[in-house]
Amino acid sequence: DKSVKLCSRSKSLSIAFPRPQIWCRSYRRCIISSYESFYQIRACSMGPYSLKDCCSHKMDPSPSCNGFPEPDRVSDSQKRTPSMPWFGMDIGGTLTKLVYFEPHNYTFEADDVEAEVLMNIRKYLTKNSAYGATGHRDIHLQMDNVMVNGRKGTLHFIRFPTSEMHNFIELAKSKGMAKLVTSVCATGGGAFKFEDTFRQEVNVKLEKRDELDSLIQGMLFADTNNSHECYYWSDPKEEDSCHKMTYDFSQPYPFLVVNIGSGVSVLAVYGPNDYKRVSGTSLGGGTFLGLCCLLTGCNSFEEAIELATLGDNKSVDKLIKDIYGGDYERFGLPGDLVASSFGQMALKERRDAVSREDLARATLVTITNNIGSIARMCALNEKINRVVFVGNFLRVNPISMRLLAYAMDFWSNGTLKALFLEHEGYFGAIGSLLASDDRV
């Protein structure tokens, strides 16, 4: 199906092909891929036709091309436009994030087989919110009327456990995706880990993109296209009165990014292409989930968060007041501050009385406090007062967001601002999708 084929898609051509319109499937990204007119290339002046005139790939043209007229010159942006459908992937250690771009106002020839496959893919992805037992589309994050690679359309956000990659590939096969997609821009460690699997199973090349570049570009794109993307938590210590407030992030630089996935990376960002990694830790979302599975017997991130929501870490952690009998006023340490994570578990009677919910809550507080401490130190070292927390650890996890917001405000005496973004863990996938404009 992906062998070199030359065909005409214009119904107005005569049998003699005096001014033919030509499509070479193997080189379609190099010549043009425009689904609004579905691969139509206007004929131009007569002359010897050579694939080398249209393609950047240094490959010998097919002999069957000899004698055909040379097509019009196309712009660099047209040459780079990838064939539909458009995807961006972020294959993380725990979760895979997929962004699908659904273009508006494009038409197909009714009898075209590829068009039928493309429409089936579109219908399947956009008409469902769940794919099998573990794949989910986050409908509330859908972005309408956004411009990607010169096209206006809708962005759909899909996630599934990376452990289910085999099932995803089988689904791609069953929906005919391999017939249309020759490459997908991807980031994350899985772009390397699953490179051979994609090539062997579905003959798709994973175009690897830098993870941190994709993250930053995805963040900036989302904030530009969503006026409510960035927010903070007001009065984070009080659960009843705490609520989200939109934050104007139109003048963002400089800012600190704390990306909380399986592990944690901290970046100082000074401009769109000016950033550096300043710190990180192996104690991230993967640590929280792994420990919760061991301690509580839960089987998913959602279940772990649900348990933590119902628990109380005070029966697990040793607090300042457990040591001093109250506040430690000399250093301004409140009595309910954690002095020793899991410190109460040294006592057998405490272990016997503890609940699964309390263990989950204490695990969440431990991981979150550690991340907050690292973020604060990095912000002080870099002299940056805005800290943006992103990553799928924060998905369905308002407890950690409020803890981070309170910690940033309390320990800095109000000089540090903890900020959050609606699309949390999808920025790497968005950045990968945008990088498809660079493909040749």
UniProtKB/TrEMBL annotation:
Q: What is its EC number?
A: 2.7.1.33
**For the region Disordered, what residue ranges are annotated?**
61-80
Catalysed reaction equations from the record: (R)-pantothenate + ATP = (R)-4'-phosphopantothenate + ADP + H(+)
Q: Which CDD domains match?
A: ASKHA_NBD_PanK-II_Pank1-like
Ligase among the record's keywords? Answer: no
Query: What residue spans carry the Basic and acidic residues bias annotation?
Result: 70-79
What is this enzyme's class at the first EC digit?
transferase
Membrane-traversing stretches:
none
Keywords for this protein: ATP-binding, Coenzyme A biosynthesis, Cytoplasm, Kinase, Nucleotide-binding, Transferase
| GO molecular function list | ATP binding; pantothenate kinase activity
Give the GO biological process terms. Answer: coenzyme A biosynthetic process
Q: In which pathway does it act?
A: Cofactor biosynthesis; coenzyme A biosynthesis; CoA from (R)-pantothenate: step 1/5
Instruction: Output the InterPro entries linked to this UniProt entry.
Output: ATPase_NBD (IPR043129), Type_II_PanK (IPR004567)
Q: Where in the cell is it found?
A: Cytoplasm
Q: Name one GO cellular component term.
A: nucleus
Q: Per the similarity annotation, which family is this? A: Belongs to the type II pantothenate kinase family.
Q: What is this protein called?
A: pantothenate kinase
